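> Could you send the DUF429 domain-containing protein prediction when you get a chance?

Sure thing. Input:
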Amino acid sequence: MKPGRFRHFLAIDWSGAAGERHKGIAMALADAGGGPPVLVDPPKRGWSRSEILALLRDDLPPETLVGMDLGIALPHADCGAYFPESDVLLPDAPALWALIDDICEADEHLAASAFTDHCDYAPYFRRHGGRQGEHFGCDGAAHGRGRFRVTEHAQSRQGCKPYSNFNLVGAAQVGKSSLTGMRMLNRLRGRLPVWPIDPLPTQGSVVVEIYTTLAAMEAGRSAGRAKMRNVAELNDALAALGSPIVKGDGAIDDHSSDALLTAAWLRVVAHEPQRWAPQGLTPQVARTEGWTFGAF
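Output:
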């Protein structure tokens, strides 16, 4: 990846929460020309997922590397299928996105509850109320943490503690945000490539999956201290990346700090060839599971 390939770096801290607008969605933009990362101001009551979709589809700055903090697919390599024991055999992640979006057509605000409640797919998820599906683990066993993608095993080796995208329970779960994000990715199909499910284009914008903890760790913070809730901590991390710091002091919500730091991190590392060729990223894994940018 040659320097200068991207002109803008947009990090999006996503949310799968119920409802139309979400304080948990934050976007930050870093310019290749330098300067501190800046937050993209949300509407008064917060961003909606539909507004993020519209921005990515119709109003994205040219040559933007977009990092989205969500899982872009479900585990596949461990069992040879997204849904083992099912007659539904999906060849790749875009087919998975289309299935979820189709089943959830009536769910407002890009929600995905119709999919996780569907009689054919609910057995694969851990849901609220102690409802753990019989297929939450690959072989039907109890499996406390659930199934993982190849990239999530790589995250674990780097010191992170990833959660299964089949887990919908707990404050740190990522299943809901990932499923709602897959609905959005389906609606971006043909408009915005998603690496590595799509080959990295030689020009134009592209989406990658991010895990903001990886950015924080490369900025000198531990996985357990990845969240930054005051500007001083954020600026220490930005300085460690060689980025100009942001103005202000006092408290900052961790969604905003995650987005700001990760936008700056993307600007620093996007030109490094090894980021685009991690060990373990086979063509089959790329097509079915995708990858987290920055995981090795």
